[in-house]
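Design review, sub-item: ligand-bound model
Attendees: FS, YL, KQ
YL presented the inputs for the 16G complex:
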Amino acid sequence: IDRLYPGVTPAALKFPNPDKRLAYGTAGFRDAAELLESTLLRMGMLAALRSMKTGMAVGIAVTASHNAAGDNGVKLVDPGGGMLERAWEGAAEELANAPPHRLAFALAEEGVALLGGAARDLGELTTPQLHHCVRMANAERGGGPYWGRAEWRGEGGYFKMVASAFAEVRNAGTDGELNLNCGAEHAQKTQRPPAGFVAGRDNGKRCCSLDGDADRLVYHYFDSSGVWHLLDGDKMAALVATFLQEELAAAGLHHRLSMAVVQTAYANGASTAFLKANGIKVAFAATGVKFLHHEALRYDVGVYFEANGHGTVLFKDSAVSTLLSRQVRAAQQARRRKALAVKRLLHVRQLVNQAVGDAFSDILLAEVILRLRKWGLPEWDAMYADLPSRQVRAATALRTARLNAEAHALDPRGRCFVRPSGTEDAVRVYAEAATQGEADALALAALQVRA
Ligand code: 16G
Ligand code: ZN
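KQ shared the predicted structure:
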């Protein structure tokens, strides 16, 4: 459009339309002279279109008429010498009120209409998307059997076409089995990067590992010296909860709405200490999404993340109602930071899956918080340092045996527990201590079975 009318946008930007709605009344547009600069420019353009359509001369009257000198008005005179045709008044209004960047479009639309065509406004698109939309709009009449498909029409169709192809290219023909030496479970349990992600070549890259059904998420990266860092569900809870805490405070709702982070015994002790030190309430639940979810529902804003990457943020309906009413009030009072905070909280609620933890929506949430804070993974990782930990699995035979109950006595700062797995025939040991050596020793000691 800008190529058809190259002068329009620069001129429109030089004379932006005023902050009020202009109406084409009985005698055209009337207002204080200084508010009508943009209108004069635009009515010049409309007069040109009207003249092209009719092939005759038209007029533009600029007059204060019977009003004070400071008032002004602009109206068009039709080829017959009378008032502008009624049908064109709407176009005049649309043009007068279009924001500068939409002006070229408004003109092009009028241009199409004056030759009897109908333009469709596709809204904001990238240039290639517009090209795609044109191609797909003509799919039926276009040449060749592979021109396009009905479901690829429009902007939504563009995403459908590209995203489905992307997923197929990625998944098709690559060797390796689902979750094998990769994925959230591998990264978090073995504390090793996924196969194919290597120190040196991949230093500084931001990586997410999900599980096969995409309800677990962990982040990780190699730093500039090739040391691998894992940001597990606990780090996610720290990132998200501090963000929500800030926004609740900015919204003036930190006393009104309760917020808590729900963790399990697998939460790294350093994460729990970090949250508490920042004045964030921490609640505990048994391992398993259903237990955390249930506990999180008790708060207006319930944040839950298992260390293994399952998690989401739940907002009570009553909290949403509070936010919606504050949104109106903050806007009326023109309190910008407050209004922004309320808007962000409402959109976080829309972004983060309210049904269950969702790796893809969690990625978008983490990314948006990182962007707002101008953080990369190193800054996020530095919120606190994980205590070294070790997880080991023991065979079924041990299920009924008594595990070493005194294991924790090895190191007073350590923590260790054993529980039967709910997903496989095994028991799990988790140990945490001040050093990796001590954590390993603690886990091993816990496995010293006593009859
Ligand atoms: C399941 C649970 C997960 C829990 C894990 C513990 C769901 C959807 N998933 O994956 O929350 O952390 O089991 O596994 O509830 P484990 O009992 O084998 O240690
Ligand atoms: Zn899963």
